[in-house]
Fold these 3 entries.
Entry 1:
Amino acid sequence: MSDEVVTDATPSQGHSVKIDWRTGKAMVSHDDAFWRDHERRRVEQGLSIRQYCATHGLALSTYRHRVSGRRRNSKARSAPGAAAAPASFVEVKRPQPAAACVIEVVVQGVTLRLTGEPAQQLLSRVLERLA
């Protein structure tokens, strides 16, 4: 139950054709140069990956896998032995909670409960009137 090569494509041609044992369909496998060329053309044309794949009949998932995998690998290889930048942290101060102010006003069985800034504003007005 393994893939079997069907055509006489050689690695120098940059691709090979295999039969998918699950579906029986022919599958073309391309080398990295094929995907680099497509990525270069996609960028030149200014298309999204989805648009480019639809236009050129490429499998979106395969394109993303091959191109993003190549990018990850090239970034990892780009600076061999280079030390990673030291981690830096920024202190984040949590805002101090305002003094809890809760006011309840009960009029004819209806309860109005205010908290926070509205409660402080109402309390200030009431205290001003009482003064």
Entry 2:
Amino acid sequence: MTLKIATLVTLAGLAAPAFAQEAAPEGDAAAGETVFNRCKACHQIVDDSGEAIVRGGQVGPNLYGLAGRQAGSVEGYSYSDAMVQAGEAGLNWEAETFKPYVLDPSAYLSEYLGESVRGKMQAQRLNDQQLADVWAYLAQFGGEEDAPES
């Protein structure tokens, strides 16, 4: 009888993680800097005074101040109509919106807007840890919401 109880307790302990909701990984800004090397082909980080923090492409918008920013709102960048519409409908960049968007931008915008749309950005192949890391890296540059405390 004791062996049966011990076996059940052990099996329950082994199965518990499968039923527990997996917590999002904690982001590491230093590791995110390395992940951002993939992003800078299209994006740069330039502060409000015009100083380049990270030089990169200009195909995508400047990512300075991304955390807490309304989607589709960088002055001078030509966004897709879908991105502007999503921003006007209330889409703001925070970890919970950024991560699924990066994985499949058009699908995310389509779901957010409730209609089939296309964004300009291509889907990126990043795992959960890389997404958390690049978010932690970007959130430290001029953003309001989700920015790490100093």
Entry 3:
Amino acid sequence: MSLQGAGSILGGLTAAMLMRRVGPGRAVGLGLAMIALASIAPAASLLPALVSTELLLALVLPSLFLAGVGVPWIFVSLVTTRQRLTPARLQGRAAAATNLVLNVPQLVSIAAGALLVGMMDYRGLMLGAAVVISACALSMLLGEREPHQKTPAPAPDLTQRN
């Protein structure tokens, strides 16, 4: 876990720079791509050529670092964009809604994962997760067709009465 923590420090230090260069949507896509790559590593023992422990460790340990880099890229981009585009009076509500939208699916996926790991090999689950996360990454990387704006204009505050 210390490798993932070190990756998170690097990801946190580079997230703002990445967002300025590629935009928040693509920064999320790159973070997801890092996590997808990291999800493939635990399943590498399915390949006959990577049966030795040394080779597996040489693949899994750097993947933990990559996952650590990807997580801050995703969340810094998400929270920064939410704060920039949400009127000041609605910041609390937007933060609460974001937490709900992120935490409920995570809770459901933990329960589903606990059930599935009892029925099938964890390596197959990791490959499945890598496929789903890769599709999400591709969606974020290819789906943003508008040119990147360096500083998005804040959303108008429609709750104020004139």
